[in-house]
Amino acid sequence: YGDDRVCNAAKRCHWDTTAAPGSCQQLPCGRFENETMCALDVECTWSTSETACVARTCHTIPNMCDCQADARCFWSRAGGWSRCEEQVFGKCPTLDMVVLLDGSGSMSQSFGRHPQGFYAMMEMVRDWVRTLPLSGEDHTIGAGSKSS
C-alpha cells in the first residue's frame, strides 16, 4: 500500500514512520491467519473484536490477576479507571505534554514524501498518541486545575 490511510485500514499492516520515508509494513502478528496459529506465539493474542491476531500488550489484558501475572505489566488505577499498563511506564509521573512546531518557511517545504514539514510532524505526533499510555483525563483535571 502506498498510502498511510489505506495501509492502516488493513488489519495486518501499519504505517511505519521509524524511517523516512514512512512505509507500509506487516504487523508482527499479522502473519497468523487463525486463532490456533496465533496462540503459538507468546507475543501475540487473538482479538475477537478484530478477528485478527494482534500484538499482546498489557492493554489487551482485561483483568488484574492476568495483568499482575505478566512481568511486563502492572495494574493501574490512575486517571479514574482501572486498567493494565506497561511496566516501563509504571514509574513515570503523569505530565502534560506541549508540542511546539516551527512556524518558519522551512516547514512549508517538502519533507521526504510529505508535501510539507507540518504533515510529516503530524504523522509522528499521531504515532506517539497511539503508543503513549495517555490517561484520558479531561484537560480541566489535574494539578493546578479548579474542579468542582
Quick synopsis:
The chain has 148 residues and is of the alpha+beta class. The chain has four helices and six strands, in the order H-E-E-H-E-E-H-E-E-H. The strands form three sheets. Strands 1-2 form a two-stranded antiparallel ribbon. Strands 3-4 form a two-stranded antiparallel ribbon.
Can you walk me through this structure?
With 148 residues, the chain is α+β, with helices and mostly antiparallel strands. The protein has four helices and six strands. The protein has helices spanning 4-9, 35-38, 64-69, 117-131; strands at 13-16, 23-26, 44-47, 52-55, 73-76, 83-86. The strands form three sheets. It has a two-stranded antiparallel ribbon. Strand 5 (73-76) and strand 6 (83-86) form a beta hairpin. The radius of gyration is 19 Å and the shape is flat. The relative contact order is 0.10. The model has no long low-confidence stretch (mean pLDDT 80).
Number of helices: 4
* Fraction of residues in helix: 10-25%
Strand/helix succession: HEEHEEHEEH
Class based on secondary structure composition and strand pairing: alpha+beta
- What is the averaged pLDDT score? 80
User: Largest sheet, if any?
Assistant: 2 strands, antiparallel
The end-to-end distance, rounded to whole angstroms, is: 49 Å
The amount of beta strand, in percent, is 15-25%
- Give, in spatial order, the strands making up the sheet with the most strands: 1-2
Structural shape: flat
Name the poorly predicted regions.
none
Q: Care to count the β-strands?
A: 6
Taking all Cα atoms into account, the compactness measure Rg is: 19 Å
